[in-house]
Structure formats: C-alpha cells, structure tokens
Amino acid sequence: MITILEKDIDSFFEVPFNVYEKTHFVSLFKDDIKRFLHPDNPLFKNGGSFNYYTAVENGKALGRIVVIVHPDSNKRHGLNWAYIGYFDCADRMDVAEMLVDRAAIWAKERGHDEIVGNVNFTFMQQIGVMVSGFENFPYSDQVYSPPHIQKLLTNLGFEAFFPMVTSEADIEKIDLKEFEKEKIRAIDNDPDYEFKEVGYFGIKKFMADGCQVLNEGFDKNPYFTPITVEEFEFQAKDLMLVIDPGLTILAYHKGRPIGVIICIPDLNPLLHSVKSKMGLSFFFKFLWFKFFNKRAVIIFYSVSPDFHGRGVNQAILKRVVTNLKKKSYKTLGITWIADVNKSSLRQMEIIGAKALHHLSLFRKKI
C-alpha cells in the first residue's frame, strides 16, 4: 500500500537514491534541500507558499513532489499557475498519479487552474524535464531526469512546451581569436569599462551588483520575475563557497554594473561520488576535487539592455575563457537556455558549445 507523507524531509531526500540508482542523477545535500524547503526561504516572504510530499511503500520512498505558488510571477505574466518541482519517481504510474493528484488538489484549493513543472521554485533555478541526452552526465545546476519521467507526465495528461537546451564546450578547442572582433577590442581599450574578477573577498558587493544586472538583463525573458538581493544571496550562497577566483566576472561602465558571468567549478562529480552525503570520504574527495577537477559550469550570464549588441558579453566571456585555459579546465557546461533565446544560443556558437541535454516544461489543466 502506498502512503503519502507530507513535509517529511528524510524520505523526500532518499527518493532519487532509491529509484535512480543507475542513472546520472545528482542530488543536493540534504541540508540544502531542507534550507530551500523552509518558510524562511525569502521567496515566500511576499505571499508565496509551498508544500511537498513523498510516496512511500513498505517503508521505501518511491516518489516525491513539491507544489509551489509564486504570486509575483503569476501577476507579472497574467497566469494562474502553480509550479511542481523536484518531481522524481519510480517508473510506476500509480506512484506518479498519487503524487501529481495530491499536488493538484493543493493547488486547486488555492484557486489555481494549471500546474507546470519541473520548476524547482523559480525560473532562475533548475527547471525542466529532460527529453533527450540521457547518456550525458549533468553539470551543477543542470536538471537530470531519466526517460520515464517525461513518459509518466505525458500519460498523466501533461503537455510539453517551452523547449530548452543545456550545452557543453571543449575549452581547449575554444579559439580566443573569436574574441578579437573590432567592438571587443574597442571595449578592451576603453577606460570607461572595467572588469572585476570575483574572488574570496567582496562577495557582498558582487551579490548586489550581480542581482542588479540579472534583473536588468533578464527583464524581457519569458516567465522571468525580478528577484531581490536577499533571494539572490539565498540561491547563490552555496555556489559561492566553491568559487574559483577569475571564473566569475562583472563588467562595469563608468562604475555602473552592466554585465556578469557566473562561472564555478562543477561540483556534480564530487556529489555523485559521495551520494550527496557528508562523511569522512567527502573531505578526502573534496581535497582531490579542489586540485584535480577539470570541469566548470556557467550558471548564467546577463548584460543590461542598453549595452546589448556592443560586445559586452563576449568581452566578459573572453576573460572567463582565458582564465579557464590558464587554470587547465577541460570542459565547460552551460545551464539551460530556452530555444526562443536566439541571442544566447549564438553566444554558445562562438565557443563551439554542443547540445548536452534537451528539456521541456510540462503543463496540465486541473
């Protein structure tokens, strides 16, 4: 008999380890999941709410789901959605149906008429369900879901929409001559432009400036909702603990922040090897990771709209790639880019990035 548990963090954390054992799925640490699934998450200070459930059979956790309401996003985009996130499940329709039904009931009771996922809280975090590329190991902040998840959702009446792609580039093959265009040289020689590499210090200033550029640059992107500095800090907190100086860079023009690329070492091989659990082996493997990791990932990049088309993003990317090469990184992952975002996809062409995973959102009327 399947039992649905509400807000049980222990069973929630165990689900993917029980049902995705032979896949490339990588979990966050339990403490990080617990931190996100807590009312203190600043996302919920402006009327947002959530609940989460685990499906358990004979003491074994077989599925999980979060259901989230983000009223600021609904208001901004004229929608009446509730998000579902962290939907991970055994390849069993009965388990999937019970979880989705429970989330739908919760959403409908609060007046919402459609559920959309996976959205792990907001469109500035992990989103999507994989539809291809299952053989490829994910980078930090990239979604991974096995093939049966899209099939379960389709069989439950969900419709795929909003296609996305994650990418990977071979750093050694990136030709720095691609960044010698006239407009990039003009930026390099203009004293009004300044580029600051984020290191172990000055993180507070980076958070405020990075948040400003993110909100300005993403303002017209589909489904984007501006975030506060507090939300930005909350989301980026753990990423910045593994910062490698010189990979994350902010651009300024006459002192104003106008562009940013957040790039960090990829944590996923480490987390996968320790099953996202702290222990003695973690600390030894972390030391190995610090010295021998060859994978990095761009979490996001953004340029203020009035500087679009001037080569600012390429000028920042030139510096990031130069530093990646100096530090002997081998591969670079890039988190999701929507198929409609042609300008960002063109940036991937410049560095020769290839598609790693294809994803979609799924939606269902309730």
Question: What sequence of helices (H) and strands (E) makes up the elements?
Answer: EHHEEHEHEEHEHEHHEEHHEHEHE
Q: Do you know the CATH architecture of the largest domain?
A: 3-Layer(aba) Sandwich
Span between termini: 26 Å
Unreliable segments of 5+ consecutive residues:
none
Overall pLDDT level: 93
Strand pairing plus helix content: what structural class? alpha+beta
What does this structure look like?
- The structure is a single chain.
- Helix 7 (203-217) packs across helix 8.
- The longest helix is centred in the N-terminal third of the chain and has 17 residues, at 93-109.
- The chain starts with a strand and ends with a strand.
- It is an alpha+beta fold and 366 residues long.
- It has 12 helices and 13 strands.
- The protein has helices at residues 9-19, 30-36, 71-77, 93-109, 147-155, 182-188, 203-217, 229-240, 268-273, 280-292, 312-326, 342-350; strands at residues 2-6, 49-57, 60-69, 81-89, 114-117, 129-132, 159-170, 193-197, 249-253, 256-265, 295-303, 331-338, 354-365.
- Strands 1, 2, 3, 4, 5, 6, 7, 8, 9, 10, 11, 12 and 13 form a 13-stranded mixed beta sheet that branches.
